[in-house]
Amino acid sequence: MIHFIKMAKDLLLVTTDAYFAKVLLQGLGQAGYRVHVAKGKGEAVVRADERNCTLAFLDMDLGYKAVAEIGRSLRMLISNIKLVLFSD
Hints:
alpha/beta; globular; 4-stranded parallel beta sheet; 43% helix
């Protein structure tokens, strides 16, 4: 009998909200995801590249210009990355 192991997917969370990041880390970790948190563009690009993230959550509270710049940078690095924008 062959058993398939579900591989955890790496996703990137870009936010400065430490509480939200902690809650998301717990919930998505239990669902089998590895969440990598970044607070800005430079850190986001490094984490996405290191972990080959295919999904990124971008916090609109960072500001429209910052989110647009982060999104463009991530797409230049990983052309098929999915971007999810969120706001409180």
